[in-house]
Design a protein that fits this description.
Layout (H helix, E strand, L loop, with lengths): L4 E11 L2 E11 L1 H5 L6 E7 L8 E5 L25 E2 L15
Antiparallel strand pairs: 1-2, 2-3, 3-4, 4-5
């Protein structure tokens, strides 16, 4: 099973080889659309181990609201995502730290 979501990004933050991205879901796989992911907030994090594979990812959300019989999740804030907790099986990510110090 493949689950995917496209988000309208409202924040990207890097620190070394770790990045966090947050935004609102604008498209998703059919099952995710059916269970209410559209227009929900989502947070994604990635840790690039520098070897090209076995990177780690983490995610939270989507924050489900207005689901009958289920209390609303608190709104996911911009730039917030959990620590990367799942090892990527294939492929990898490259994180380039943004140096704002000049």
């Amino acid at each position: 099973m493949t689950i995917w979501a496209e988000i309208k990004v409202d924040c990207v933050v890097t620190g070394g080889r770790v990045a966090t991205v947050t935004g609102e879901v604008v498209d998703a796989d059919p099952m995710s659309r059916e269970i209410g992911w559209m227009k929900q907030r989502f947070g994604f994090s990635v840790a690039d181990n520098g070897r090209g594979h076995f990177d780690r990812v983490g995610w939270s959300g989507p924050q489900l609201r207005d689901v009958p019989g289920r209390p609303d999740d608190p709104e996911l804030r911009r730039c917030m995502a959990p620590a990367p907790f799942h090892t990527v099986r294939a492929g990898g990510y490259t994180v380039v730290d943004a140096n704002f110090a000049g």
